[in-house]
User: Which sequence fits this backbone?
């Protein structure tokens, strides 16, 4: 059943978010010398320098205590905080027609939201981030609007089941079921089944990568392309950036361990194919990818290693690192709007290249 989306920034909470957003806007407009006084000395790590605006916002956020993480009390608090921060950092919403629908899940229908720009022809199935514990349709509304409007692509954002209430493999099974349903309904979204792509950020990028790997095994055509924003690809935690960037840059090693504890059953082999995307024995034939990383993100190395592995198996890959940014920057369009626009442009180019390859492979009509 379709319904027009309610404005998530309405009501008393919306007033608070607008006030915080106005404060952030004023801070971002300060002269660089004032920002530097607030931020402190420049931060360098692994040969990179932290972006000044990022450092200033981190310094301000560090004044607030981080509550102890608990699998019972933390998830509801994290979900509320994610919605609040998304509203603060959303910036000016792009005017894209939006409709709420449901799509198939593995156990029950899932809420989904369709962003349909005036021009299109391709569909991006989007899975939100949030450590498999937080995030929903509202937390990624602004990002999906930009991807749809700037990239001229219909975006279908899917709210999969969250941990710890629904641990692995619930989110993976939901992602596969939702993707298969949207492919079967491609005409409803103005596309053909071979023009359905998949994407996500962080934990959502993890789900998108597994869908791209496993869709064909489930009898569903593989996606036309994949957009992976700072994805989780190695749940063993072996990559060096998880150590060198373990604390002080928004997403910490403690956070990552907590999310994994909520999501993964204790006896699960984290190095197994189907659990860690990086563990797949072969990536040949997987969809062309745009992989975006951030220089001060503990997930940086595993995202870039996944890009290298895809290339080694013959998959076309565009890898783009935003050197000075931290994990989750794409959810703050107010501070990092130009970067989000760049991502949308790069993915539009990835989709266009994939379409040219499809036409070439098909041969003369």
Assistant:
């Amino acid at each position: 059943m379709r319904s027009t989306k309610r404005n998530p920034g309405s009501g008393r909470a919306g007033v608070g978010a607008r006030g915080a957003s106005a404060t952030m806007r004023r801070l971002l407009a300060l002269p660089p010398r004032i920002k530097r006084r607030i931020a402190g000395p420049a931060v360098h790590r692994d040969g990179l320098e932290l972006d000044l605006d990022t450092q200033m916002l981190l310094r301000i956020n560090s004044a607030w205590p981080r509550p102890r993480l608990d699998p019972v009390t933390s998830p509801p608090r994290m979900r509320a905080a994610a919605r609040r921060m998304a509203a603060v950092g959303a910036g000016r919403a792009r005017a894209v027609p939006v409709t709420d629908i449901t799509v198939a899940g593995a156990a029950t229908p899932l809420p989904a939201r369709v962003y349909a720009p005036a021009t299109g022809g391709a569909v991006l199935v989007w899975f939100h981030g949030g450590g498999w514990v937080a995030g929903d349709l509202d937390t990624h509304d602004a990002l999906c609007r930009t991807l749809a409007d700037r990239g001229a692509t219909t975006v279908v954002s899917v709210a999969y089941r969250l941990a710890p209430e629904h641990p692995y493999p619930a989110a993976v099974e939901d992602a596969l079921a939702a993707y298969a349903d949207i492919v079967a309904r491609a005409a409803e979204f103005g596309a053909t089944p071979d023009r359905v792509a998949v994407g996500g950020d962080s934990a959502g990028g993890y789900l998108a990568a597994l869908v791209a790997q496993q869709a064909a095994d489930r009898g569903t055509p593989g996606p036309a392309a994949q957009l992976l924003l700072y994805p989780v690809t190695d749940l063993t935690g072996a990559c060096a950036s998880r150590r060198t960037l373990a604390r002080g840059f928004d997403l910490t090693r403690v956070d990552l361990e907590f999310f994994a504890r909520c999501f993964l059953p204790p006896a699960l082999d984290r190095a197994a194919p189907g659990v860690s995307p990086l563990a797949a024995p072969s990536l040949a034939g997987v969809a062309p990818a745009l992989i975006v990383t951030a220089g001060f993100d503990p997930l940086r190395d595993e995202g870039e290693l996944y890009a290298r592995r895809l290339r080694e198996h013959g998959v076309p890959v565009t890898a783009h690192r935003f050197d000075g940014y931290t994990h989750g920057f794409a959810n703050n369009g107010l501070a990092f709007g130009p970067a989000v626009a760049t991502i949308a442009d790069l993915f539009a180019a990835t989709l266009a290249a994939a379409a040219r390859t499809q036409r070439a492979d098909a041969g003369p009509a």
